[in-house]
Amino acid sequence: MNNLARIDLNLLVTLHVLLSEKHISRAAVRLHRSQPAVSHALARLRDIFGDPLLVRRAGRLELTARANELVEPLNDVLGRLGALIEPPAFDPSAATRVFRIAMSDYGARIVLPALVKTLRADAPGIELIVSQATREAMRMQLMDGEVDLALGVLPAMQRDLHAQPLFVESFACVADASRLPRRGELALDAWLARPHALVAMRDGMDNEVDRALARLRRERHIAVILPFWGVANDLIAGTDLVLTVARRNLDRVRDDARLRVFEPPFLIDSFEFAQHWHERRHGDAAHIWLRQAIARVASGG
C-alpha cells in the first residue's frame, strides 16, 4: 500500500511504453517527453518496484523477469482505466434505449416524422416517448430528469442546462381566402378588427405575437384557444378567424385552396428553435448520437 501511494497514472503509462519499446529514446518520442524525463521516471519505477526492470545486455535493454511479469497485468490495468475514463463507443444499430422527449405540437410536426424514419433505419432498438408541455414545464422536467431532451423555446436557461439552436423561425398569418382582400393581406387595423385563434397549451401563456403587439400598445381579440395544430386548417376555413403562427407550421396550408398565407402587418421577432438537455446527459454517447440525429433532420439533412 505504501508503494501504491507513491505511484501515479503517468508513471504506469511510462512503464507501459518502456516495456514495449525497450528503448529510452523511442519511449520519450512516444510519450512526447524529453529523454532525461523518461530516464528519471524509470529511476522512480525501479525504486518503487525494487527491481531494475530494464537491464542492458549486448548494447540493448532487455526486460527483467519481474518486468516480464508486469507486462500482462499492466496492459489489463491501463485498458480498464481507459474504458473507465473514455466514453464507450456507441453502436446505434445494436443499441437498446428509451428516450423521453418533450416538444410542442409544432416541434413534433417539424422534427418527429424524419427523426422516427432515421431511428427505424439506423437504430431500431431505440424507443421514443414523446410528451407535450408548456415551456416552463419542459424546463422543470429537464431539471428533474423526467425527460432526456426538450425541443422548443425555453425560458431563461439555468446553468446546468445546455442548448443547441436548430434553426431560426419567423411568423406568418393564415385566414380563409374568401374573407381576405383581393391583394391577400390585412393592414394592422383590419388585422386587429378580426377575431384570432391561438395555439397554446393554456390560456394566459406568454407568446411572441402578443409581446410584439404590446410594444405597439395594441391588443388583439382571441376568440379560440386550442392546444394543438392538427385541426387548425378546418378551424380557420369558412370563418373570419386569423391564425398567426410559426411559418413552418403553414407548409401544408399552402396546398389548401380554402386558405391563404400572408405576412403579419407588424414586426414580430423571430426566434431560435433549439434542443435542450441537462448536464447529466451531456457526455452520454447515446444521447450525443440522438442530438446529432435531431440536428440533421431539423436542418433538412
CATH level 1 class label of the largest domain: Alpha Beta
- Alpha-carbon Rg, integer: 31 Å
| Strand runs, count | 12
- The level of helicity is 40-55%
| Overall geometry | rod-shaped
Within CATH, the superfamily of the largest domain carries the name: Periplasmic binding protein-like II
Largest sheet, described in full?
A: 5 strands, mixed
Going by helix content, strand content and strand pairing, the class is alpha/beta
Can you count the helices? 11
Please characterize this protein's 3D structure.
This protein folds into three domains: 2-85, Winged helix-like DNA-binding domain superfamily/Winged helix DNA-binding domain (Arc Repressor Mutant, subunit A, Orthogonal Bundle), CATH 1.10.10; 97-165 and 276-298, Periplasmic binding protein-like II (D-Maltodextrin-Binding Protein, domain 2); 171-269, D-Maltodextrin-Binding Protein, domain 2. The chain has eleven helices and twelve strands. The strands form three sheets. The chain has a five-stranded mixed β-sheet, sandwiched between helices. Strands 9-8-10-7-11 form a five-stranded mixed β-sheet. With 301 residues, the protein is of the alpha/beta class. It is rod-shaped and about 100 Å long. Helix 9 links the parallel strand 8 and strand 9 (221-226). The chain has helices at 2-6, 9-21, 24-31, 35-49, 65-85, 105-122, 135-144, 188-193, 208-215, 232-236, 285-298; strands at 54-57, 60-63, 97-103, 126-131, 149-152, 161-169, 171-176, 195-199, 221-226, 242-246, 259-262, 271-278. 41% of the residues lie in helices and 23% in strands.
